[in-house]
Design brief:
The chain is of the alpha+beta class and 304 residues long. The chain contains 2 helices and 12 strands, in the order ααββββββββββββ. The strands form 3 sheets. Strands 2, 5, 7, 8, 9 and 11 form a 6-stranded antiparallel beta sheet that branches. It has a 4-stranded antiparallel beta sheet with strand order 1-12-6-10, with no helix packed on it. A two-stranded antiparallel ribbon has the order 3-4. The chain is elongated, with a radius of gyration of 56 Å. It starts with 87 loop residues before the first helix and ends with a strand. The N terminus is likely disordered.
């Protein structure tokens, strides 16, 4: 039928697809159109007289043969994925149950456990690193930052920080301002400074160690000096705010060390000093007439 004839060449009840239902003979007059198809009766579905064949099975010009295989058997090796062991039928319950020759579904619990184990190992590593780092920092704060043997120490240019209420200032001798050849060392064990360092080289004329210190009120204080001698007496000149005292600091061999035994001669002594309110300068120096074979480890103030 074309748009031009508007259906005039086709009977109203004729089936335009009747050729699909022709018999193998191809001719016949059973149908109303004489095309070999049986006449259609209202309400009765058509029945195909054609025999279904697989693609490529029919050969034109040769005798027709009965199909060798039913539909769905052309490939005896093919099987739908759903029918395979572990396929969708087994998973959704429509196939054979487990234990009837079917392979069980792969268990993913192993992968989950492995992932959790990796996360746990990473967390443990981070925790160990943090603990180790904290320990190293604590060790550094405990005294690793002090001067080593032969290192020079920056001079004390500012007053020492004020102590808490009821305490007076104190300082390791290595934190004093050093001049005239005085320097820090750690060769002799036993120094009572926090780092084990002490001031050496005081036996050269002009060598000195100066402490800049703050006090809350003017008055007389005891200046304590920690020192070590090699089994013999020593003394140093004491100067306060630029004025030298007529009496040197007495540094006798109070420890009773044998001569030359520096490590056995650590002890302490004190002298009175008159200080002003605020900042003061206290100087220990080797001057003419002093016996300066001495090492200094600590200096502090106390009430008289």
């Amino acid at each position: 039928m074309t748009a031009g004839n508007n259906g005039a060449d086709t009977p109203e009840n004729d089936d335009p697809f009747a050729y699909l239902y022709r018999s193998e003979g191809g001719e016949g007059g059973a149908g109303p159109s004489g095309d070999g198809a049986a006449a259609r009766q209202p309400g009765v579905p058509r029945t195909s007289y054609n025999q279904v064949r697989a693609v490529g099975q029919r050969q034109y010009g040769a005798p027709q043969q009965a199909p060798q295989q039913a539909y769905g058997q052309q490939n005896a090796h093919y099987a739908a994925p759903e029918t395979l062991p572990g396929g969708d039928r087994a998973r959704n319950g429509s196939g054979p149950a487990y234990g009837a020759g079917q392979e069980p579904r792969r268990n993913r619990n192993g992968l989950l456990i492995g992932a959790v184990a990796v996360v746990a190992v990473v967390c443990i590593g981070i925790g160990v690193a943090m603990l180790t780092n904290g320990k190293d920092s604590a060790d550094d704060n405990a005294g690793g930052a002090g001067p080593s043997a032969g290192e020079s120490v920056a001079p004390s240019k500012e007053p020492t920080s004020k102590p808490s209420a009821g305490e007076l200032p104190k300082i390791d001798a290595g934190g004093l301002r050093l001049d005239g050849g005085a320097s820090t060392a750690k060769d002799v064990p036993g120094a009572r400074s926090s780092s084990g360092a002490y001031v050496a080289g005081m036996n050269a004329p002009g060598a000195s160690a100066t402490w800049t210190v703050d006090v809350d009120k003017a008055g007389q204080y005891k200046l304590w000096v920690g020192y070590g001698v090699p089994g013999k007496d020593a003394n140093l000149t004491l100067g306060v705010n630029g004025t030298a005292s007529a009496r040197p600091v007495n540094m006798k061999n109070f420890a009773g060390a044998d001569e030359g035994a520096w490590d056995k001669g650590w002890t302490k002594t004190w002298s009175y000093v008159q200080l002003n309110k605020g900042t003061n300068s206290i100087k220990l120096s080797c001057e003419s007439g002093n016996q300066c074979d001495v090492n200094l480890d600590k200096v502090w103030l106390a009430d008289k």
